[in-house]
User: Fold this.
Amino acid sequence: MTLPGWTREPLVHFLAAGAAIWVVLAWQGEPVDPGSRTIAVTREDRARLALQWEQTLQRPPTDAELDALTEQFVREEVLYREALRLGLDQDDAVLRKRLAGKMDYLAASMAETATASDATLQDWLRQHPERFAPEVRYSFDQRWFATRAAAERAMAVADPPGEAISLPPALEQTRRREVEERFGDAFRAALDSAPVGGGWHGPVASGFGWHVVRLRAREAGEVPPLDEIRDRVEADWRSATMATRKDEAYRVLREAYRVTIAR
Amino acid sequence: MRKTAIVAASFVGLAIGLAGCGDHSARLASAEEQVALAEFPERPLWGDTHLHTDNSIDAFGFGTRLGPDEALKFARGEEVTATTGIKAKLARPLDFLVIADHSDGLGAMRRLYDAPRLLIRDETLLRWHDMMHESPQGSQRAMAELITAAANGTLPEAFQDVEENAKNARTIWTAHLETIDKYYEPGVFTPLAGFEYTLMPDGNNLHRVVMFRDGFERTSQVIPFPGVGEGPVDGLWDYMDAYEKATGGKALAIPHNSNLSNGLMFELTMPDGGPITAEYARRRARFEPVVEATQIKGDSESHPFLSPNDEFASFGDLGWELGNLPLTRDKSDSMFAGEYLREALKRGLSIEQRTGVNPYAFGMIGSTDSHTSLATGDEDNFFGKHTGNEPNAQRALEPQNLGTRVGRFGWHYLAGGYAAVWARANTRAEIFDAMMRREVYATTGSRMVVRLFAGFDFSDADWQGDWVRAGYTRGVPMGGTLAEQGKAPTFLISALKDPDGANLDRVQVVKGWVDAGGQTREQVYDVVWSDMDKRARVGGKVPAVGDTVDRAKATWTNTIGAPELRATWTDPDYRAGQRAFYYVRVLEIPTPRWPLYDAVRFGFKLTPDAMADAVAQERAYSSPVWIGPKTAAPATAFFDRKRLSKG
Assistant:
């Protein structure tokens, strides 16, 4: 069940899709073109069929097998063309989706195989530093209380002891997602608005109860140089470029249409 | 003979694919070295060891079109678009991920789908090809046929062509290994190489996830080991053994869905029916240190038939208890004992008593087994077992398409679990080693923080100081083994709620042991619970915690339960010389399950039986600690480690 290499060629997809569209248009607009009733199986076609066979079965077909393959090919071609004439391709959800997908694929395929130059990636890194900057890091002390009232009372004390819970009383330069993992979303959000370098702040609510917090530092990380994170930058550039190509290709095509939607 | 050939073939092409990756591997290795190791594990790392992408034959067949790239992006916290077009994002990212695509027919379904129709000679394959192209429903029907065929050993020959499959597997595996390296950020996010070995005699589920410790240089020297039609499981261990010898790397296997094995996963005998030998027990314990206790296709910790006195034993059993995976064989009561983990742990003690080695000395983790490329474990964010039941208004009440006979419905699926790993740093080696020493636990999706230490001199005073250090220096953590000292073991137990989840109801210790008459026994102890002063035991039982779930809105409040439960607990029934294990089960207060969220979101009414199961107590299962006579060969001898070396 190997998929022959040529079937992955964008050019082949393009030609196939083009041929299909051409056939449909030809059928819709004009009386039946006698040419479309002609099927010429070239030597190249036969060679291609033989090659597919060989790639599947690891041996060349016998003459009889090749003839059978050719006959099968012709049969499928005849039925395919007749199906198009009957409009069986219309309203076929699978066909629609598949052809639409092929168009997307065509648009994106260049980006999939292109190698990005250092300059391109450097540019990309400069344009999207937030995607590659390390997360914000926090250094803080916290004390936990079961009730808000207890936390408020503790604010008055110089070094509140806090109640017993298995949460770290202090964290040093801890990444944002780790703080969120250990203290939850609400607590981490409160750290973003807490004053840095002051005394005890709060009470701050979390999924556990109430905290008083002394935020000692909140550091935004610097973007590392390209050579340290080249893979990440390239992967990001590639997937973004593929998406952009699809969108651009679609926009160009879309502009040629007037779409009305009844509501 | 054939097995040997496959193992040998797996090593052919040793050098293939190595070129071009050297730079990258070197960079990763240096990044790994720069990650600081904590002295003791500081927080559990969260992950899924069991995710399928479109490279899995059935995941593709069921319709998923997301691959490893999307799976990795999603797991590390990015938003992706699910196959059905819905935006998907995790509320909190995962720390690690094992993509475990089925080794059998790796990528085969995608190739069949893409293949020119003209070239498909096999009638069955052609029918499946057409069904897949016809509609998503057709695709799912094709998949159901394929799973049944695999279970019955009637797969089309093209799927059984060893050489062709190996060639295809090599291509996909190499590409996959390159992909996961691309996403590996030591210290931040760790994808590990793995695959699923899908051994399924007569449809009885003996599946394992195989997970590697190593990077591209080693893992690219093998290809995933096929499971369908082969067996017994020794073949897999031979493969792992050969991998370790040839590459110097390490691999472990994680059995799962023992609840669908019809009694075969944890037998008292060898697969051929003879008594278990010490050699078999040793190999099993060595290669399978961890078992998946809970996942989308049910929970395998306990069953009411085996544990009639445990009122919480039935979680995630409904529907799955009817038979094997494709429901080609019904289940009889006598099969339960070979399926549920608590019983397996007990059987392990009894086999150890006889042979000197415990084959079932395993730790416990949870995972998803999602076939959507989306590792979702949260009840309010469940993306389905496969693409056919990504969020939609019908999925909760529809009959499952796995197994064509009656009895299993959408709502029987659980939202999936996660694996919590007490590692010293977020790297492949640290995560793998923590699994080897079983310092891991399972949750049903919630992110509770559970610590367990066992020793002989712990007391309540330890809570006043650095009790984690006390635990590691004067005892053993979960997964460890205590050498008997003629007195009862004492445990330091702490369970901290999920910071963004529900409060805790109670912490229980589950003990299993072999009594003086050689019989295995079990006992569940409530050791600490919320509002202990108001919830005094009635007739030996702690009263239920209550229920705040609003069925009409799928909401609940943390007005009951506790944020943390701690206990110093000593076994009151211990007898010197006893061979026993102890693990912790933590229960949250009741919260809505995914079918209730669905009912509210999509505005439909659950059937009475679905409604009765729409609220549950999410839970965590720690790995056990074992204690036994000093003379017995400790099951941990192979990965000789009870304490962490100072990092």
Notes: The two ends of chain B are 45 Å apart (CA to CA). Confidence is low (pLDDT under 50) at residues 1-20, 631-647 of chain B. The CA atoms of residues 322 and 544 of chain B lie 29 Å apart. The longest strand of chain B covers residues 504-514.
